[in-house]
Design a protein that fits this description.
The protein is α/β, with parallel strands linked by helices. The protein has helices at about 5-25, 30-40, 90-100, 110-115, 145-160, 180-185, 205-215, 235-250, 260-265, and strands spanning about 65, 75-80, 105-110, 130, 170, 190, 195, 225, 255. Strands 2, 3, 4, 7, 8 and 9 form a 6-stranded parallel β-sheet that branches. The longest helix has 23 residues, at about 5-25. Bound molecules: zinc ion (ZN). Keywords: Hydrolase, Metal-binding.
Amino acid sequence: MDDTGADGKGRRALLRALTVGGASAVAGVAMGAAIDSADASERIPASAPGTPRGAHWRPAAGHVDVIWAVNTQQKLVALTFDDGPLPNYTPLVHDALDDAKIPATFFLVGKRVEQHAGLLHGRMDRHEVGNHTWAHTNLSNLSLNTAYRSVKRAHDMIVRVTGKEPRLLRPPWGQLGGTTLQVAGRLGYDVALWSLLITDRSHPHDPNGLIDFVADSAVPGSIILGHDAGGGPSRLTLARALPEMIKRLRKKGFEFVTVSQLLAAQASPTARGTA
Ligand SMILES: [Zn+2]
């Protein structure tokens, strides 16, 4: 994802709308009106339907999960990094993870994988790969075929360059429509969102503030989203703060796992990550 202010505003607006809906529901009588007006004001894009018209269709696995976090008592968290690889910050992030000997999950942009394949060679052994589309596209605005091409092209490039098969799709900005879920289903993916965004843009020159925020906010099962590309100078603050952030989380008893390992920990209470 890319935590642009505009999208943040959009999410806050949506949350406000949901809150208003919830309040109306409590009021009872007003509920119908609130729902009707919400429907009327929604412009549902053509990409939205979750099932194609007039055809029998089901995802490869019969279902697609959308994951924000995992319920677990174990002190496990998954660090994830979006938008790379790019030369400016990706190597710094890899260095920090290698020094700490911990795994992470990289949601890779296919086009950048093609352009900067060398940044990944020999550096992804302990990490999981995820798909972040071919060109960081808003999937919720695309037709099924265009969305499929974007994700499949990225999938093939990630496999070719890393030798690893992604099983998780993270739609850019977390924006997804019904067609996004269909694409995920066709490719046997689940959709991985996040529960804690590393807000480097709110702490562009304050690494300690950023470290405190993440260390204070993480809970068992958190999927933590950072960025190893784009977004301006605050990304450098994040990359440089990463070693201390990892230390602080460790001091609080957290272990680091990939998103798939975190999901396995949910399925089996005794499963542990390899970190
Ligand atoms: Zn992104």
